[in-house]
Design a protein that fits this description.
heterodimer; A: 220 residues; mainly alpha; 0% strand; B: 219 residues; heme transmembrane transporter activity (chain A)
Chain lengths: 220, 219
């Protein structure tokens, strides 16, 4: 527990010292939203709710992939070796996952806010929509952290990151889009329990598997 | 004889399947008509693919536990043949879809799941090709194999059951076993599953041997 806390603190401090990376991510999401705004909203008045929803999730997915790719590459190999002697691999992966959840949550909330400002707000049940965002942040960050660990060992990290993560994130993404569609239509909560339960289950599976597999990854 | 009995079994079963599949008597069903014969080919290919994928993950886990490079070779070749079976299943399914649902590729959760599965294994091979070092390649691809399998399983088994699907047994459609297949069809269907799976294992074992010979030759 102590170790976990120290490691998360280290991640946050590291991020704070290189603020340009964080600012870069925020700018990334803002400019992507702006591109969508220019492409959609200027010409045609309004945008279909389904397009609104899907577009937001695609933006969030790309933001997540881009921001998590650097999880393992921003520190040099020598420093990683140093952590290897200090901390347990389980501590490292959990701290990275938790840190990435916080990071993604921040980015997605900023993204959602800007998106609503530019493209309007067709969401009727905002609490459920935010639940979808939270579940999405947890799921994306746990999956992508592990994939980033795998991809960082290879030369062409960024290509590999996209290629490896998209197929395994698809089931989660389709569930998220369905849940957030329910939220947009303002359906009752009990119609979406299935989706929430499945998302929680997928998140749990992914975190458990990362916890078990990361020691093997860390060793190489 | 000890080691070849299952190959003989495989040939016999597949001959039986093909003869029965093309010439046997099948029940007349609306819409399905004669295409119901495809059940001997399309469905067992999926069963075979799932078995081969499971075997691939099994050897990946085994490799991570003991670091024996031979387990990695098993894992790769099982994945390879699983993809091959997946493509065959995809093609037979698409042919079947054209004649029953009127579309080569209808939007169906199971078809999407399989497309994702093929994507996953393609990226598995891209991952493999981006490493030079053998042990490293083996370890990272084993990790990805297990990780992807764990997320692929809910996709195949849970999602199609929640949404509307054209496939029997999903989204309120009755399963094939219920009343489409009579007993004489089952007599062919169950052996067909075993036969196609055995064929997959046979192809895999030949490919593994080839790989081992290449490895020993290069040393």
């Amino acid at each position: 527990m102590q170790e976990l806390k120290a490691l998360i603190e280290k991640e946050i401090r590291l991020e704070w010292r290189q603020r340009y990376a964080l600012n870069g991510m925020i700018l990334y999401i803002v400019s992507t939203v702006f591109v969508c705004y220019i492409s959609f909203a200027l010409k045609i008045k309004g945008i279909e709710p389904i397009t609104w929803n899907t577009l937001l999730w695609i933006i969030l997915l790309f933001t997540a992939v881009n921001s998590i790719t650097k999880s393992f590459t921003q520190e040099r190999a020598g420093r990683q070796l140093y952590y290897y002697t200090l901390a347990s691999p389980q501590g490292i992966i959990l701290s990275k996952i938790i840190y990435n959840i916080v990071l993604l949550l921040t980015l997605s909330l900023i993204g959602l806010f800007i998106y609503i400002v530019f493209l309007g707000n067709p969401v009727q049940n905002l609490v459920m929509y935010l639940t979808a965002i939270v579940l999405g942040a947890i799921g994306f960050s746990s999956t992508l952290t592990m994939v980033a660990g795998i991809a960082s060992k290879a030369e062409n990290t960024s290509t590999l990151m996209a290629v490896l993560s998209f197929p395994i994130i698809l089931p989660m993404l389709s569930m998220l889009i369905r849940l957030s569609k329910n939220a947009m239509d303002g359906l009752e909560w009990n119609t979406s329990y299935d989706e929430i339960l499945i998302l929680l289950a997928i998140d749990a599976i992914v975190i458990a598997i990362s916890y078990l597999l990361f020691p093997f990854l860390w060793r190489s | 004889m000890k080691k070849t009995w299952w190959k003989i079994l495989c040939v016999v079963i597949l001959l039986y399947t093909i003869i029965q599949g093309l010439g046997g008597i099948v029940p007349r069903q609306p819409i399905l008509n004669e295409t119901i014969r495809n059940v001997y080919f399309h469905v067992p290919l999926w069963f075979g693919m799932m078995t081969l994928m499971t075997a691939s993950v099994w050897f990946a886990i085994k490799y991570l536990r003991n670091g024996n490079i031979q387990d990695d070779e098993y894992s790769v070749e099982f994945a390879n043949v699983a993809i091959f079976f997946g493509i065959l299943g995809f093609m037979t399914g698409s042919l079947w879809g054209q004649y029953t649902w009127g579309d080569w590729l209808p939007k169906d959760p199971k078809i999407i799941a399989v497309e994702v599965g093929l994507l996953i294994y393609s990226s598995y091979f891209i991952l493999r090709s981006s490493f030079e070092d053998e042990q490293r390649k083996a370890r990272l691809s084993a990790i990805y194999n297990i990780f992807a399998f764990a997320t692929f399983i809910p996709l195949v088994w849970i999602l199609p059951r929640l949404t509307d699907s054209l496939h029997p047994g999903n989204g309120g459609n009755p399963a094939f076993g219920k009343y489409d297949m009579d007993n004489s069809m089952r007599m062919v269907f169950y052996p067909a599953i075993i036969g196609w799976t055995l064929l997959g294992v046979w192809i895999t074992s030949l490919r593994i041997r080839l790989r081992v010979i290449e490895r020993l030759g290069s040393n």
